Amino acid sequence: QVQLVESGGGLVQAGGSLRLACAISGTDFIINFMAWHRRVPGKELERVAKILKSGSTSYADSAKGRFTISMDNAKSTVYLQMTSLRPEDTADYYCTGNVYTRREGSVDYMGQGTQVSVSS
Question: What b-and-e string marks burial along 5-37, b requiring 16 or more CB atoms within 10 Å of the CB?
Answer without folding.
Answer: ebebbeebeeeeebebbbebeeeebebebbbbb
